[in-house]
Write a structure and sequence with these properties.
Elements (H helix, E strand, L loop, with lengths): L13 H5 L2 H31 L1
């Protein structure tokens, strides 16, 4: 095993990550999934309130 490097790993900025097309597709997909979850939760709450 080699000794760990004393220099820290290079960290990119958010702008650099945001320009990556694969990450952008993943982020858009995740945001649309989250939006669907929010709509489902609100609909479930509304259903329970109107039926009870």
């Amino acid at each position: 095993m080699s000794a760990p490097s004393s220099t820290p790993a290079r960290v990119g900025s958010y702008a650099t990550v945001g320009r990556n097309p694969r990450f952008l597709v993943l982020w858009i997909d995740r945001m649309s999934s989250f939006s669907g979850d929010v709509v489902f939760n609100l609909a479930a709450i509304w259903f329970v309130l109107t039926t009870t």
